[in-house]
Amino acid sequence: MNTFKHAIVRKPAKSLVDGITTHPELGKPDYELALRQHEAYVGALERCGLSVRVLPAQEEFPDSCFVEDVAVCTGRFALVTRPGADTRRGEIAGVRELLAEYYDDLEEIRAPGTIEGGDVMMVGEAFYIGLSSRTNADGAAQFIAALERRGYSGRGVKMPPTLHLKTGCSYMEEGVLLVDRAFAAYPEFASFKRVDIAPEESYAANCLRVNDYVIVPAGYPKALAAIRAAGMRTIELDMSEYRKIDGGLSCLSLRF
Ligand code: GLY
Question: Which of 40, 146, 225, 251 has its CA 20 to 30 Å from the CA of residue 152?
Fold first, then answer.
């Protein structure tokens, strides 16, 4: 099982209210509430035993609090990504220098490749990479080559119309995979102990296993009960303001 010691998060910018969204009907985020939810998120990571580094807000990038997308942190190396969303590409400035404080071995994705960390799901030494509108085949191939050079494996996963791979499935360790209906018939995931997320609770397909806990978005009772029934300890967090701009629990941190 992966054990994490560190997390990196980025304070939400006031421009967060203009983050990319496929759910405008949910309304704009309330910035003050988003800040409080972010503080609770940091507190939850600390409760899971992590030392949390909070980076300053980047007003020029509305989605920059979703720091998971700018890097992939493995046990052996870290990757600086190249986000597929044009408005997010500049978020990688300074990320290499930041990661160099923790890693000796760094890689970065080169054009024309794109990859966002939300499309990368780590299952032990195997990595699943969603070929989404944000992550292209070239970016996935570069990442897979980097993985294989270090003894890991990687494989691309064809995507349904879902933002990121981890929008629709999350690995909970111990062989357990949370799966949204969009991924239910995927042969790639047939060997997992699958916890199927009810369609009306699909947002809860993005949960976060951190050491001894699973962090679950508040307000999804079926998902919560299923995760507890799988024997896992849970922490619930209100994510209402991030959901409005397509952000989930995993998006808000890098963990390693
Ligand atoms: N709003 C998060 C994203 O689209 O990347």
Answer: 251
